[in-house]
Specification:
about 375 residues, alpha+beta, six-stranded mixed sheet
Length: about 375
């Protein structure tokens, strides 16, 4: 029997997973309010690597053409010595299918702009600079009390509020992100003419020195080292520090390093891991994306896993016409967790393992084998 009233969803967080689930739910006529804590809708960042399984979801969202136009597609990765000599070029697995590139690099702000445009066009009600301070559940749904003094009543709340999700803690899920021991320096920079794919150098002053083309004119470059106390590094020295770390790398790196002049454009972040092992929901509140799981970017799968969450959850919610019964909704959200947990665990564990081998100095680790097995598994639709 068709539900006599429109189903209503509150999405908390306007990042990749929150934006994606909003668009997909609006497509089937579900009323969605999206709130985002940051007044600028978080249109920030340097670059992002999107592999085929992420592109598959972006195509489902209807934004593939804009992504393809804005990004830089490539199908291989180079392995280099610190002096810049590329000694091996590996063809990447097309995890999204043969009709999509293996990888697209993009400027992260441009991807966010594309997703925000799709949310606006979907007809969702968006409020920026707003948080949910309290969620009260009863037999009829969830009452959310917002930071601006208003409140709303919803059939379901989707918590897409990221790694340090306040909603996760609010509903009694105790897992928190844990540092892996590594940190990354990142910057958006002009693209040297020689850079046509990701090249990774292992060793030197850092564990990894890499870059990814993000458009015809731009790249993002990154250096991975052991994490340091962030309070001990003056943000005003970020550009100097990144150039200091880059000095031992050859190839395109001297040209990249010369462009690292503005400390405000350099981002320094620790690698974290998170996997909520138990149920990802409590009653009518469910976690997606980094609120439920996060991994270091050693496999470049963080955004892909978040987008896949949105796709699977929206698929299940769209197929069930009525959410009046908490028991039936509980069953649906349990199936969502069951669909996602093994695939996400595989990615989180593999991403952490790749970094741990470097931290431990293990030279003969089966890095190609682990990456190959993981990427082959990701070719399967979630």
């Amino acid at each position: 029997m068709t539900d006599p009233r429109p189903r209503t969803v509150l999405v908390i967080g306007g990042g990749a997973s929150g934006n994606a689930v909003t668009v997909l739910l609006r497509r089937v006529g579900i009323a969605v309010d999206l709130i985002e804590a940051k007044p600028d809708w978080n249109v920030l960042g340097s670059g992002i690597t999107l592999q085929g399984n992420a592109l598959r979801v972006l195509r489902e969202l209807g934004v593939w053409d804009k992504v393809q136009e804005s990004g830089y597609a490539f199908d291989s990765v180079g392995l280099a010595t610190p002096d810049g000599h590329v000694f091996h070029v590996q063809q990447d697995i097309r995890t999204g299918g043969e009709d999509l590139p293996a990888t697209i690099g993009m400027q992260r702000p441009r991807l966010q702009e594309i997703l925000c445009e799709a949310v606006r066009e979907s007809g969702a009600h968006v409020r920026l600079g707003t948080t949910a301070d309290e969620l009260v559940q009863d037999d009829t749904g969830v009452t959310a009390r917002f930071s601006d003094g208003t409140e709303g009543h919803y059939d379901l709340v989707v918590a897409a509020d990221g790694l340090n999700s306040l909603t996760r803690a609010m509903i009694g899920i105790s897992e928190k992100p844990e540092p892996t021991g590594m940190a990354i320096w990142r910057i958006a920079a002009p693209r040297p003419a020689s850079v046509e794919r990701t090249d990774l150098a292992f060793g030197g002053t850092c564990y990894i020195a890499g870059y990814c083309p993000t458009s015809e004119n731009t790249i993002y470059a990154y250096l991975v080292e052991a994490n340091r106390d962030r309070a001990s590094i003056d943000p005003a020295t970020y550009a100097d520090e990144m150039r200091r770390l880059a000095v031992s790398y050859g190839g395109a790196w001297p040209e990249i390093a010369a462009s690292i002049t503005d400390p405000a454009k350099v981002n320094y972040t620790w690698f974290d891991r998170l996997l909520v092992e138990g149920s990802w929901h409590r009653g009518r509140v469910v976690l997606v994306g980094d609120a439920a799981h996060a991994c270091p970017p050693t496999l470049a799968q963080g955004a892909a896993m978040s987008l896949e969450d949105a796709s699977v959850l929206a698929e299940l919610l769209s197929a069930q016409e009525s959410w009046d019964s908490l028991d039936s909704l509980d069953d649906l959200l349990t199936r969502y967790h069951e669909r996602r947990i093994d695939r996400v665990r595989m990615v989180v564990e593999a991403s952490v393992q790749l970094g741990q081998w470097q931290l431990d100095g293990i030279r003969d680790a089966d890095v190609p084998g682990l990456i190959g097995r993981t990427m082959s598994a990701l070719k399967e639709t979630p």
